[in-house]
Amino acid sequence: MATDSIQGQSALGQPADRPPDYRDLELDNQVCFALYSASRAIVRAYTPLLTDLGLTYPQYLVMLVLWEHPEESLGVGELGRQLHLDSGTLTPLLKRLEGLGHVTRRRHATDERRVAIALTPAGLAIRERAVALPREIGQRTGLSVDRLTELRDELVRMVAALESPSRPQGR
Predict the structure, then answer these.
(1) Residues spanned by the domain of 98
(2) Do 37 and 57 belong to one domain?
């Protein structure tokens, strides 16, 4: 956490005119580490459930977006925007999902650079088996549905603030 602030206090409430409080650098005081640890724990919790579906966690995320639009095809760029991934990361995932028979990839008729991704019937059928996963993971967290919703909303706001182009980069 940074120790400077517009209001004259560090991120942990220390006056800015005091010597640095190195407790700000303790691992347990880092929001980034708590988020990193939580993310790893969530992925570990999902892994055995997704293995039963024949999916990895990144593949599951792609399928979640596609399941929201089961009758449509989505461009790789749109998938990337929704998942916060670039095409270099998505392309191998999509090729593997295509190899598994869960999606089709079709080049645009007039623009070879554009690729549309659509669910296959097999890809759509997995949704029926996956529908209970979010609830099961939610129960494993020990948090109420309301608290999980609040937490998700706070994290969405945090991501938006951190990715905002009007936000100053660095110091």
Answers:
(1) 46-163
(2) no
Q: Is the dihedral of CA 52, 55, 61, 64 positive or negative?
A: negative
What residues contact residue 135 under an 8 Å CB cut-off, 6+ apart? none
Residue 95 vs residues 59, 100, 141, 147, 161: alpha-carbon distances, Å: 10, 9, 32, 37, 33
Give yes or no: residues 52 and 82 share one domain. Answer: yes
> Are the C-beta atoms of 10 and 3 separated by less than 8 Å?
yes
The set of residues, in sequence order, having a beta carbon less than 8 Å from that of 94 and lying 6+ positions away, is: 62, 76, 79, 103, 105, 115, 117
Helices 76-83 + 87-99 axis angle, to 10: 110
Q: Which two tokens stand for residue 81?
A: 């925007």
pTM of the entire predicted model: 0.82
Which amino acid is present at 131? Answer: V
Same domain, 142 and 87: yes
Q: How large is the average pLDDT for residues 133-161?
A: 96
| pLDDT tens per residue, range 38-96 | 999 999 999 999 999 999 999 999 999 999 999 999 999 999 999 999 989 999 999 99
Tokens 């209001």 appear where?
7
| Residue with token string 């951190």 | 162
